[in-house]
Amino acid sequence: MTTRTDLVYLIALPLFSSAFLLLLGRIADKWGHFFATAISASTFGIGLYEFFAMRSRSGDFRAATQRIFEWISVGTFKVDASLLLDQLSICFVLLITGVGTLIHIYSIAYMSHDRDRRRFFAYLNLFIAAMLLLVLGDSYLNLYVGWEGVGLASYLLIGFWNERPAYATAAKKAFVANRVGDVGLSLAIMIAFTQFGSVTFSGVKDAALHASSAALTALGAMLLLAAAGKSAQFPLQSWLGDAMAGPTPVSALIHAATMVTAGVYLITRSNFIFDASSTARLLVVIVGAITLLFGAIVGTAKDDIKKALAASTMSQIGYMILATGLGPVGYAFAIMHLLTHGFFKASMFLGAGSVMHGMNDEVNMRRYGGLGKVMPITAVTFGLGYLAIIGVPPFAGFYSKDKIIETAFNAGGARGILLGGAALLGAAITAFYMTRVVVLTFTGQKRWADGTHPHESPSLMLIPIILLSVGSVASGFLLNKGNALVHWLAPVVDASGAEGGAELFKPIVVSALALGVVVLGVLTAVLKYRGTVPVEAPAGSPLTRFARRDLGQDDFNHRVLVLPGRAITKSLVGMDFHFVDGIVRAVGWTLSYLSLSLKKVQNGYVRSYALLMTIGAIALLATIWLVTL
C-alpha cells in the first residue's frame, strides 16, 4: 500500500466549488454552471490519473492512502480522517465523476431557463463531493460522513423546486426513509466499536476472524438495513418513485452514478463480514430477490416514464444486492452490473428528459407515440440503453446480468433453483416493461395534445446521451473480457474463486434461458401495445391496479408505521400535557394560591402589623422558654 498526498483533491475540489457558488450568490449566475462543470471534469481527470497510476503499480502496492488529520483520540481509540483508494473505490470514483460530468454538461442546457441554475449546480457538486467521501473513506465513520452528505444533497436536489408542495413532500419522504436506514449504519458502527474496538475497514476485518457469529450477524444485519435505505431495497423502497419529482438530471445522478449504488458499495466493502456470517448473507439474498421482482412488477404498470425507469432501477439494484449475497464471485459481478447499469440507466434517464423537453414536460407515455420519427437521436440512444438493460447480446447488460443469473443458479440445490428462477423471471418482466416504455414512447401513432410540437433536444443534451449510449454497448464486453473486473477486484473482495463452484447449468445454457425469457417478454409487450393505445389508462386487472399503487407499499407504511406512530405520539403528547406539564402547573397553582393567601396579611393597617409583631415576639419567647427547660 502506497501513500499519496493528492487524494484529498478528489473531494476538496467539488466541495469548494459548491461552497463557493452558494456563498457568492447571484454574482455567479451567468457563469456558475460552467465553473461547476469544469470542476467536475477536473475531478474526473484526477480520477483517471489515479487509475493509470494504480495500474502501473504491482498488485500488492496498488492501494493508496492519505491521512488528512487525527479526528478522534480518546484513550486507546483513535480514528483518523483518512482516505483509501483501492481497486474497488477507483471504480466508483470514475463512475461518479465521469457520468456526473456528463450530467453536468446535460444540465447546462436542461436548466438553462431556471433562475436558480447556479444553486442547482452547487448542489450537484455537493452531491459528488459527498459520494466521493463515501467511497474513499477508510473507515465506517469516515464513510458515514459521506453517507449523510449524500442524504442532505439528495434532499436539496429532489426538492429543488420546493415551491411546489408535491416536490417538497417527495424530498421529505426520501429524507425520512433514508434516515431509517441511517439508523442501521449508526448501530453497525456502534457494534463494531464495542465488539472489535475499531471502526476502520482493516481493523474490523482483522477482528472479524475471531468474532462470535452473533456479533457478525448483528453487524451484517445493520449494514444491510443501511444499504436497503440508501439503495431503495425492500422494505425501505417506497421513496424512490416519488424522488422523480426532482429535475431529470437529478434522477439520472441518483439512479445511475451515485446514491442508490451506495448500498451495493457498502455490502461489497464489508464483504469480510458477510462471508463470515451465513445468516447475514442469507438476509442479503432474500432482500435482493424480493426487490428485483418487486421493482419489475411495479414497472409494468407505470405510465409516467420517469417512474417506470425508477422501478427499473429498484429492480436492477435488487440484482446487484442478490449478487453480493452469493459469495466472493458475486461481489465482482454485482460491481460489473453496477458499472454497466451506470451507463445505460443514465442514458435512458437523460433520454427521458430529452423526451420531456420536446413534449412540454409531459411525462405520461400514453400521451406520446411516434416520437422516434421526430426525435431520432433520442430514440436510437434510448434504444441502445433498452437493449442493454434487457440483456440482448452483445450489449452491456447481457454480460453483467447473465453472470448474476448464472451465479444464482450455481448457489446449489433448491436454493439455487429458486434464486435462479427469480432472476430469470425478473429478466422476463424487465423485457416486458422496458419494451412497453419504448413502444408507447417512440412507435405507433402520435397521441400528443394539439399545440404540442415535439422536437430534438439541443446538442449539449444530446452529446452526453450519445457518449453514455456508447458505454451501453461496449462496457459489458470490456469489463468481462478475460474476467478483467473479477481479477481487478480480487485483492479487495477475494474473488479468486470466480472459476470455482459447481455448475447447475453451463453458461451457454443460462444465456439461452435468459435470452429466451427476454424474447418472450418483448413479444408479449409488442402484441399488447402495438395497436391503438388509449390516452387514459384503463382500469386493468386487480394486479395492475395494485402495481400502480406500488404494490401497496405506501398503504403498508401508512397503516403499520404512520398510524401507530401517530397514536404513540398522541399518547406521549397527552402524557406530557396531563402528567409532566400537570405537575408543573400544579406547583405554579399552589404557589399562586399561597401567595394570594399571604397577600391578605399585608393590608396596610399599622394595627395589624403591630398585632403580628406581638404574636411573633410571644411565639419567639415561648420557643426560647421551651428550649431552655
List keywords for this structure.
single chain, three-stranded mixed beta sheet
Report on this structure:
This protein is mainly α and 629 residues long. It has a domain at 558-628. Helix content is 73%, strand content 3%. The chain contains 25 helices and three strands. The chain has helices at residues 8-24, 32-55, 87-110, 117-136, 140-158, 165-196, 201-208, 213-230, 239-242, 248-257, 262-269, 271-276, 278-299, 305-324, 328-358, 371-374, 376-390, 396-409, 413-442, 459-480, 484-493, 507-529, 542-548, 553-599, 606-628; strands at residues 2-3, 64-74, 77-85. A three-stranded mixed beta sheet has the order 1-2-3. α15 crosses α21. The longest helix has 47 residues, at 553-599. 51% of the residues are buried.
Outline of the structure:
This protein has helices spanning 8-24, 32-55, 87-110, 117-136, 140-158, 165-196, 201-208, 213-230, 239-242, 248-257, 262-269, 271-276, 278-299, 305-324, 328-358, 371-374, 376-390, 396-409, 413-442, 459-480, 484-493, 507-529, 542-548, 553-599, 606-628, and strands at residues 2-3, 64-74, 77-85. The chain is mainly α and 629 residues long. Helix 6 (165-196) packs antiparallel against helix 8 (213-230) and helix 15 (328-358) packs across helix 21.
